[in-house]
Design a protein that fits this description.
The protein has 380 residues and is of the alpha+beta class. It has 3 domains: 85 residues, no CATH class; 103 residues, Tetrahydropterin Synthase, Chain A (2-Layer Sandwich), CATH 3.30.479; 138 residues, no CATH class. Strands 6, 7, 8 and 9 form a 4-stranded antiparallel beta sheet that branches. A 3-stranded antiparallel beta sheet has the order 3-2-5. The protein has a 3-stranded antiparallel beta sheet with strand order 10-11-12, with helices on one face. A hairpin with a 4-residue loop joins strand 11 and strand 12. The radius of gyration is 61 Å and the shape is rod-shaped.
Length: 380
C-alpha cells in the first residue's frame, strides 16, 4: 500500500511540474499571434486603396512611375509601391494684373482662369509642373502685359472681350503641352485709378449735358416754329373772318339803303349814307366813353359840331381818300390798314363799324383820321 501511494504522489508532482512549464510557452504564443495580426492588418492597409470619381491614381514602384489607375478599388505591392492622386475636376485661379495703357493710365485688371487636367495627359500634368497655378499666373501676366500697353484706356474697355480671348488662346497653347486644358480666361473688370474714374465720369456727364441741351434747343425750336405756324394760320383765319364780316355789313347796308329809298320818296343815296355814317360815328364815341380804362377824348364843342362831322365825313368819302391808321407801328387786328382807300361808301361804313367793335373789345388805342380835315378822336 505504501508503494502505491508513493507512486501516485510522484505522478501528481510530475503533472504539476509540466503545467508550470507550459504557462510561459502559451504567453509567448499569444503575443506572437497578436503581432502577426497587426502585421497582416498593416499589409492589407498598404495593399488596398480606392480612387475617387473625377480623379486618377499615379502608382510608383520603388520611386519609378509604373501605371495610372482609374476610380475604384486597387491593390499595391506591399512596401514596394505607393500611389499619388490627381484631381481631374475644373479649378479656378484668380489673379490681378497691374499695367499701364498707351495713354499712360495705370489700371488693375482682375483675371479668372478655369482649367483642368487633361485625362490623356495625367503623366505630364503630375510630373512636368510642380506648381501649376503659379505657372498659369506667370503666363497670364505675360499675356496681359503684351496686349494692354498697346491700347488706350477707352480701347481697353472696348476690347475687354478680345483681351480675354487672346489670353485664353495663348494660355491654351502653352499649358496643353503640360497636360492642362484652359477652359476660359475671363477679364472680369478694368479698374483705373479713382481720380481717372472720376474724370471719366465728369467727361461723360458733360457730354450728356451737351446732348440734352441740344435736344432742348431743338424742342424749343420746333415749339416756336409750330407756334408761329399756328399764329399765321390764326391770322389768316381771322382775316378771312373780318373780310366775311365786312362783306356781311356791306350787304346789309346796301339792302338798308335800298329799302330806305323805297320807303322815303325823294331821298338820295348821299342822304342815307350821311345818316348812317353819323349814327355809326356817335355810336362809336358812346362805346368809347363807356369802356373801362378810357383816359381822354378830344371832341369839338361848338353848336355846329354834328353838321361839321357829317360834312367832313362825306367830304372825305367823296374825295376818294380816307382810312384808318393806328398810332402804333402796325394796325391792330380788325382795323383797316394805314393808307387804305375804301372802294365804296358802304365799305367805309363797314370800317367805321369795325372801329366801333374794336372799341368795345377794349383795344388799347382807337385812332381814326379823316385826312381831309384832320378830325381825330382818341382813347387811352
Amino acid at each position: 500500500m505504501l508503494g502505491v501511494s508513493h507512486q501516485r504522489a510522484r505522478r501528481m508532482l510530475a503533472e504539476r511540474r509540466g503545467r508550470v512549464c507550459m504557462e510561459p510557452v502559451s504567453s509567448v504564443f499569444v503575443v506572437l499571434l497578436i503581432f502577426l495580426a497587426i502585421v497582416a492588418l498593416v499589409v492589407i492597409l498598404k495593399t488596398l486603396y480606392t480612387v475617387r470619381t473625377a480623379s486618377a491614381g499615379v502608382v510608383e514602384r520603388f520611386g519609378k512611375f509604373d501605371r495610372i489607375t482609374r476610380p475604384g478599388l486597387h491593390v499595391l505591392v506591399p512596401f514596394a509601391e505607393r500611389v499619388f492622386f490627381v484631381d481631374l475636376q475644373v479649378k479656378q485661379a484668380q489673379f490681378s494684373v497691374e499695367t499701364k495703357t498707351r495713354d499712360n493710365v495705370f489700371v488693375q485688371i482682375p483675371v479668372s482662369v478655369q482649367y483642368q487636367v487633361l485625362d490623356e495627359k495625367i503623366f505630364d500634368a503630375f510630373y512636368r509642373l510642380s506648381a501649376p497655378q503659379k505657372q498659369i499666373e506667370s503666363f497670364v501676366f505675360n499675356s496681359i502685359l503684351g496686349h494692354v500697353p498697346k491700347l488706350t484706356l477707352d480701347e481697353t474697355f472696348e476690347q475687354q472681350s478680345g483681351i480675354s480671348v487672346a489670353v485664353k488662346v495663348e494660355l491654351d497653347q502653352i499649358m496643353s503641352g503640360f497636360g492642362f486644358n484652359i477652359l476660359t480666361a475671363l477679364v472680369t473688370d478694368i479698374i483705373p485709378d479713382v481720380k481717372v474714374k472720376a474724370a471719366m465720369n465728369d467727361i461723360n456727364a458733360a457730354q450728356r449735358a451737351q446732348v440734352a441741351a441740344q435736344a432742348r434747343g431743338e424742342a424749343d425750336k420746333i415749339l416756336k416754329v409750330k407756334q408761329a405756324e399756328a399764329e399765321a394760320q390764326s391770322k389768316a383765319l381771322q382775316g378771312q373772318g373780318i373780310a366775311a364780316e365786312r362783306q356781311a355789313i356791306i350787304d346789309g347796308l346796301r339792302a338798308s339803303i335800298e329799302h330806305f329809298r323805297e320807303t322815303v320818296p325823294g331821298s338820295t343815296a348821299d342822304d342815307v349814307m350821311a345818316l348812317v355814317l353819323l349814327t355809326q360815328y356817335f355810336d362809336t364815341l358812346r362805346d368809347i366813353g363807356t369802356r373801362g380804362g378810357t383816359n381822354t377824348i378830344f371832341l369839338p364843342n361848338n353848336p355846329g359840331a354834328a353838321n361839321d362831322f357829317q360834312t367832313q365825313i362825306l367830304a372825305g368819302l367823296r374825295g376818294g381818300v380816307g382810312g384808318w391808321a393806328d398810332d402804333r407801328a402796325g394796325a391792330a387786328p380788325g382795323f383797316p390798314a394805314a393808307g387804305r382807300v375804301p372802294g365804296t361808301i358802304a365799305a367805309s361804313v363797314a370800317d367805321l363799324a369795325h372801329v366801333r367793335r374794336g372799341a368795345t373789345d377794349r383795344t388799347p388805342y382807337v385812332h381814326f383820321v379823316l385826312r381831309e380835315r384832320g378830325l381825330r378822336a382818341r382813347t387811352g
